[in-house]
């Protein structure tokens, strides 16, 4: 199906401002940040900058914790941006919106990026960040028994890779993975599907980003392409959100089917009528706002279930 009229008008305005050719990495990072900065920043009860222990030094991070009567469940979030773009500051409006929609805490993390730091720097940082948040949860007002991992787009690949590496029982094992229009098969850049509304998208630049990220690493490795994980059993329950007109949608749907077939609980949220990147557009059109609300509700249901403590008391 096509896009609703309001959202279609928004997309036409976006596509009328194509990126300038010949940009440097720093130019692209500034433009990406400026684009996200157009979104409002919803209020969140507690917003606190952190420094997490990473494998190559401190990792800047930001805690978003809505009002809570007890230790809050949390998601450790890894931003998108084609592995090369994005950071905690630029993603502030997106994570605020997700925290407000879900009612749970989010810890947004600045992982290392290519071309300065190729694979496996970002997944290594993700594994360390999840472990740090779980170990320091009490001091942050978080529940160490309800810590999950999340990411959008390239960050979805990083989050899924971290979930795979942390699947063994232990204090750092995520209780949930939230993958938002994720990149899960890095063997090739899938083609853009025919557009029902005749929109023409600029070249994605994903091939260049993948070369910078992988720098010769075999893309068929399961920790690079989580869709190729040979045995998904034991992975955390998943919430997977797609966008209907996204070239990455088929691989996310295949990943959801493989997890379900392996006995992993999956909630699949179909972003009907939407495009890749919609998390930052909820202030500009009704349809992306609805999708963010649906993602938030699913996360809240998954993480805010009562937890039984050793004396038999239930906390929420």
Write the CATH fold name: Rossmann fold
CATH architecture title = 3-Layer(aba) Sandwich
Low-confidence stretches: 307-316
Please give the radius of gyration in angstroms.
18 Å
CATH class: Alpha Beta
- Rough shape? globular
**Number of helices, counting only DSSP H or I runs of 4 residues or more:** 8
Distance between the termini: 40 Å
- Series of secondary-structure elements, N-terminal to C-terminal: HHEEEHEHEHEHEHEHEE
> Could you give the order of strands across the largest sheet?
1-2-4-3-5-6-7-8
Query: What's the rounded overall pLDDT mean?
Result: 94
Total number of β-strand segments? 10
Quick one: biggest sheet?
Answer: 8 strands, mixed
Q: What do we call the CATH homologous superfamily?
A: Alpha/Beta hydrolase fold, catalytic domain
Fraction in helix? 25-40%
Structural class: alpha/beta
Structural commentary:
This protein has one domain: 3-Layer(aba) Sandwich (Rossmann fold). It has eight helices and ten strands. It is an alpha/beta fold and 316 residues long. The N and C termini lie far apart (40 Å). Residues 307-316 have low confidence and may be disordered. It has helices at residues 5-15, 25-36, 92-102, 121-135, 154-165, 206-214, 249-261, 286-303; strands spanning 46-54, 57-65, 72-78, 105-109, 142-152, 177-180, 238-241, 266-269, 307-308, 314-315. The longest helix has 18 residues, at 286-303. Helix 3 (92-102) packs across helix 8 and helix 4 crosses helix 5 (154-165). Helix 7 (249-261) links the parallel strand 7 and strand 8. The protein is globular. The protein is 32% helix and 18% strand. The strands form two sheets. It has an eight-stranded mixed β-sheet with strand order 1-2-4-3-5-6-7-8, with helices on both faces.
């Amino acid at each position: 199906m096509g896009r609703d009229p309001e959202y279609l008008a928004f997309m036409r305005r976006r596509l009328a401002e194509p990126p300038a050719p010949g940009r440097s990495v720093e130019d692209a990072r500034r433009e990406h940040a400026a684009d996200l900065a157009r979104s409002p920043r919803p209020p969140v009860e507690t917003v606190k900058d952190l420094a997490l222990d990473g494998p190559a030094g401190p990792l800047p991070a930001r805690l978003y914790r809505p009002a809570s009567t007890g230790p809050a469940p949390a998601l450790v979030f890894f931003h998108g941006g084609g592995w090369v773009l994005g950071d905690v500051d630029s993603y502030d409006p997106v994570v605020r919106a997700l925290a407000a929609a879900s009612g749970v805490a989010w810890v947004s993390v600045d992982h290392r990026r290519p071309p300065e730091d190729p694979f496996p720097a970002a997944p290594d940082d993700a594994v360390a960040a999840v472990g740090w948040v779980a170990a320091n949860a009490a001091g942050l007002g978080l529940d160490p028994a309800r810590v999950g991992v999340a990411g959008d787009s390239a960050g979805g690949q990083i989050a899924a890779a971290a979930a795979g590496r942390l699947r063994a029982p232990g204090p750092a094992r995520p209780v949930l993975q939230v993958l938002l229009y994720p990149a899960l098969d890095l063997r090739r850049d899938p083609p853009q599907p025919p557009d029902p509304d005749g929109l023409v998208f600029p070249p994605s630049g994903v091939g260049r980003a993948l070369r910078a990220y992988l720098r010769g690493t075999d893309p068929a490795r399961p920790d690079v392409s989580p869709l190729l994980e040979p045995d998904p059993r034991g992975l955390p329950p998943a919430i997977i959100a797609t966008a209907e007109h996204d070239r990455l949608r088929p691989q996310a749907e295949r990943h959801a089917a493989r997890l379900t077939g392996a006995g992993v609980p999956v909630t699949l949220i179909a972003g009907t009528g939407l495009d890749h990147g919609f998390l930052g557009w909820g202030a500009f059109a009704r349809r992306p706002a609805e999708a963010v609300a649906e993602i938030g509700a699913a996360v809240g249901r998954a993480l805010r279930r009562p937890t039984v403590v050793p004396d038999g008391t239930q906390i929420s």
